[in-house]
Specification:
The chain is α/β, with parallel strands linked by helices and 422 residues long. The strands form 3 sheets. Strands 5-4-7-8-9 form a 5-stranded parallel sheet, sandwiched between helices. It has a two-stranded antiparallel ribbon with strand order 1-2. A two-stranded parallel sheet has the order 3-6. Among the domains are: 97 residues, no CATH class; 51 residues; 144 residues. It is 63% helix and 10% strand. Keywords: Coiled coil.
Length: 422
């Protein structure tokens, strides 16, 4: 008995394995046909019941209706339960949906469906990871945008503040320009007066003196001493005081006028500068001189901050101009402790003048002459040309090093400065 049972179980297991293999290897079309057949089978269970009833009636006439119902009752119950279970699982809707998906993605077996589901799950994991990374990146970008917005607002506030300060400064400049214009007009008017420069206080003092002179009744008295006629002048002390006040006021006004007419010196902030004629390159450390202003050029600047100078000399056939240029170098040498002279353009053929200059400058104490026969043929067009010219004629010069740094951050200026390049 046990052998038969075990043989039946083994046979059923083999059949089940075969069914699994068959279902795994079954195509989509075959599976769809089987689902349709199964659905039709479920639907035809009522028809089976009716056919069974007819067959029972044909087999025996002695079977009553009640007996037939009793015989068919188990079949009816099975049919009802089978239909209910089939409807609970959604009928063939789920199977047909799975088959439709497999057909759309060209999947022919359950194994391919399983692999596709595994890939979809992996894609979903990657998508979730990318979504999380994107959310973090989005949050970080949002914070950067908000920070940039705050910086923008701060910069806007600073710009508005600077604009207000600019407007106030422009108003002050206009006010000072008006005051300067009035002062110049007043100075011009005072210069045209024959008695010199006067202000309101001086005019009041003069009027006071004039009134005192008119009201005084004892300016001069003449009387006789014995037989001699002696002229005695009795001067009023008020008149003498007024005249002295008048002279002091006029002298003070003239001194103030002279001091006011003196141009203020421009303070040179750079400690290392280049002094040259017009060379074609502009910079904050480059100061140009003109032949027509050699006498007064040095008085326009304050050299207190200057430590070293490279001076480009432009000698011409004009002996007077050359003498003025030499005097300018000596004047600057009295204030600056390190000056290097480099010939820029030597139009003068008199070597004796150059030799005498070299001797006089060397005796000045801290003036060096660069013995270079070659001179520049024309103006420099770029910073690099100027630096190549200077570096070829000097060695480790601090002024040239400063100009090299300035050339990196500065652009050549086109418009010349009114004061610093004359």
């Amino acid at each position: 008995m046990s052998d038969k049972t075990s043989s039946k179980q083994s046979t059923s297991k083999v059949d089940d394995n075969r069914m699994i293999v068959v279902e795994t290897q079954m195509g989509v079309k075959e599976r769809r046909k089987k689902v349709k057949k199964f659905t039709k089978l479920i639907a035809s269970s009522v028809k089976v019941e009716d056919e069974t009833r007819l067959q029972l009636g044909e087999l025996t006439t002695k079977c009553s209706e009640q007996e037939a119902d009793a015989i068919l009752e188990p079949m009816r119950i099975f049919h009802r339960e089978l239909l209910e279970k089939f409807e609970e699982i959604g009928g063939d809707e789920w199977s047909r949906s799975v088959i439709r998906v497999m057909r759309e993605f060209k999947l022919e077996s359950v194994e391919e469906l399983r692999e596709a589901c595994a890939k979809a799950a992996q894609v979903q994991v990657e998508e979730n990871l990318l979504t999380e990374c994107w959310n973090e990146e989005k949050e970080m970008l949002g914070e950067q945008i908000r920070e940039s917005q705050r910086e923008k607002e701060m910069l806007g506030e600073q710009i508005r503040k600077i604009q207000r300060e600019k407007e106030v400064a422009e108003a002050q400049v206009r006010k000072l320009e008006k005051a300067l214009t009035k002062l110049r007009k007043k100075l011009d008017q005072e210069e045209r007066k024959p008695n010199g420069l006067r202000d309101e206080a001086q005019e009041i003092a003069v009027e006071t003196v004039t009134g005192d002179e008119k009201t005084s009744s004892e300016e001069k008295k003449v009387f006789m001493v014995g037989n001699l006629g002696t002229r005695v002048e009795n001067r009023s002390p008020y008149r003498e005081t007024a005249e002295k006040s008048k002279e002091i006021a006029v002298d003070t006004g003239m001194e103030e006028k002279k001091e006011g007419m003196k141009p203020k010196k421009t303070v040179i902030r750079e400690s290392k500068i280049l002094i040259a004629p017009r060379i074609g390159v502009k910079g904050k450390s480059i100061f140009e001189y003109r032949k027509s202003a050699l006498d007064t050029w040095k008085n326009r600047f304050d050299f207190a901050n200057v430590e070293a100078i490279v001076f480009l000399v432009n000698l011409t056939e004009d002996e007077e101009t050359n003498q003025k240029l030499g005097a300018l170098v000596l004047e600057i040498a009295e204030e600056v402790k390190g000056i290097t002279i480099i010939p820029y353009q030597m139009d003068c053929a008199k070597s004796g003048l150059v030799e005498s200059w070299k001797r006089s400058w060397i005796t000045a104490g801290h003036v060096k002459w660069s013995d270079s026969a070659a001179s520049a043929d024309e103006k420099f067009k770029t910073w690099e040309q100027l630096l190549e010219f200077l570096e070829a004629r000097t060695t480790e010069n601090v002024v040239v090093a400063q100009l090299r740094k300035e050339s990196v951050t500065s652009e050549p200026r086109i418009k010349e400065d009114k004061w610093s390049h004359q």
